[in-house]
Every structure is written in structure tokens, then in C-alpha cells.
């Protein structure tokens, strides 16, 4: 490999690292919806020049997590009500299709889902909202990844990403954490009975409650 190729790969790796770090700051709630992302601050934080920061933000622009406005710069994307409604409409349709495609659950798969829900319970007792958020996503996608509809699951994961900054806020509520744990346990039990339509209904109710809670977080002010 030439020196130039090595340098290019090194720069790409640095940019990808920054993409991952800023994405985690967004989905973890450190950067909030509507908040400006100042390139000079990010450059100082990651000990790099502004060039890789700008490249990383352009990558995130394509994911929908970041927006750009002339004379304002980059900021964390903020969903308006119409976009939020469409997001949950897509989740309703696609997640229902995924669940209906699931094979009969194997005991080890059910055990893994139970382990994840137990881990959520432990994190909830510590009031660790960040861990609850990450484990909640892992629980759902451990279930979804058993589906043969891999492209649909990938699309659902992308859609989840748009709302993750809001999840970081609402799971800080102890009542929401308890609800999530209870409803997950019901899902595992229903999946174990191979009651597909029952699981579809449980998931619809689960989403509807989350949507109602997240709707309350939307406001016209950044």
C-alpha cells in the first residue's frame, strides 16, 4: 500500500470515529434536538482540525440526524409534528410486517430477550436512562433480527435513529421505565406461545404509548 493510500485510510478512519462519537452524543441526549453543533468545539473535543469534523457532519447529514442551514451551520435534526407522525406510521407498518415474518422462537432466543429485559430492570433501578435506552433498542432488534426481512429491519433501524434523541429524554421518567419492562415481559411470553397477532397488537400498543409520551416533548422552541 502506498503512503498516500495509507494516509487516505487513516483520514477515513478518523472521520468515521468522529461520526460514531457525534452520533452517540446525539442519540445519548448530550446533544439535543435543535441544538447547534459548533465545529470549533467539536474540533477541540476530539483534538483534530475542523476539516474531519466538517466531513463527519456531512456524513451525519445523510442519515437525517443532522441538518444544515445557511449562515447557521449544522444542528441536531428536530422533528416537526408531521414528520413525527410519519415516522410512527412507518414503524407501525414495517414492524408489524417483521413480526408476522418471525419464525417460531427457539428457547435460547427467548432466554436472550429475557436477559436483556432483566438488564433493563437493573439499569432502571440505577436510574441509568442511557443504559435503558440502549438496552431497549437491543431488545427490540434482537427480536427483529430473527426475521428473514433483513432489508426491512435495516430500514426500521434507520427510522429508529431519527427518534433516538427523544427516547433519551423520555426514558428518564421512572414510570416509563417500569412500563417498558412490563410490556417487554408480555412480548416475550406472547412470542413464546407463537401468538403472532397477539405480539403485533402488543407492539402496536407499546409504540402508541411511546408515541404519546414523545409527542409531549415536541415544541416549537429549540
DSSP strand (E) fraction? under 5%
User: SSE order in H/E notation?
Assistant: HHHEEHHHHHH
Average pLDDT taken over every residue: 87
CA radius of gyration: 19 Å
Count of DSSP strands: 2
Uncertain segments: none
Number of helices: 9
How would the blueprint of this fold be written?
Layout (H helix, E strand, L loop, with lengths): L2 H25 L11 H8 L3 H14 L2 E4 L3 E4 L4 H20 L6 H19 L3 H16 L5 H21 L3 H19 L3 H20 L7
Antiparallel strand pairs: 1-2
Helix pairs in contact: 1-3, 2-3, 4-7, 4-9, 5-6, 5-8, 6-7, 8-9
Quickly list its features.
single chain; 222 residues; mainly alpha; 2 strands; 73% helix; 4% strand
Description:
The chain contains nine helices and two strands. A two-stranded antiparallel ribbon has the order 1-2. The chain has 222 residues and is mainly α. The model has no long low-confidence stretch (mean pLDDT 87). Helix content is 73%, strand content 4%. The N and C termini lie far apart (47 Å).
How do you describe this structure in short?
The chain has 222 residues and is mainly alpha-helical. It has helices spanning 3-27, 39-46, 50-63, 81-100, 107-125, 129-144, 150-170, 174-192, 196-215; strands at 66-69, 73-76. Helix content is 73%, strand content 4%.
Amino acid at each position: 500500500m502506498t503512503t498516500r493510500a495509507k494516509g487516505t485510510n487513516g483520514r477515513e478512519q478518523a472521520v468515521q470515529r468522529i461520526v460514531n462519537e457525534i452520533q452517540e452524543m446525539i442519540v445519548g441526549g448530550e446533544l439535543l434536538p435543535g441544538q447547534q453543533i459548533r465545529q470549533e468545539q467539536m474540533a477541540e473535543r476530539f483534538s483534530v482540525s475542523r476539516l474531519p469534523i466538517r466531513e463527519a457532519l456531512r456524513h451525519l447529514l445523510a442519515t437525517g440526524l443532522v441538518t444544515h442551514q445557511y449562515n447557521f451551520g449544522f444542528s441536531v435534526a428536530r422533528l416537526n409534528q408531521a414528520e413525527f407522525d410519519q415516522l410512527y406510521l412507518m414503524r407501525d407498518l414495517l414492524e408489524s410486517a417483521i413480526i408476522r415474518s418471525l419464525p417460531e422462537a427457539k428457547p435460547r432466543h427467548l432466554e436472550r430477550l429475557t436477559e436483556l429485559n432483566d438488564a433493563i430492570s437493573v439499569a432502571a433501578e440505577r436510574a441509568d436512562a442511557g443504559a435503558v435506552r440502549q438496552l431497549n433498542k437491543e431488545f427490540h432488534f434482537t427480536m427483529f433480527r430473527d426475521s428473514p426481512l433483513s432489508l426491512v429491519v435495516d430500514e426500521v433501524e434507520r427510522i429508529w435513529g431519527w427518534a433516538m434523541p427523544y427516547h433519551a429524554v423520555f426514558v428518564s421518567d421512572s414510570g416509563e421505565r417500569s412500563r417498558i419492562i412490563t410490556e417487554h415481559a408480555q412480548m416475550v411470553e406472547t412470542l413464546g406461545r407463537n401468538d403472532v397477532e397477539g405480539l403485533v397488537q402488543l407492539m402496536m400498543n407499546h409504540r402508541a404509548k411511546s408515541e404519546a409520551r414523545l409527542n409531549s416533548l415536541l415544541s416549537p422552541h429549540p
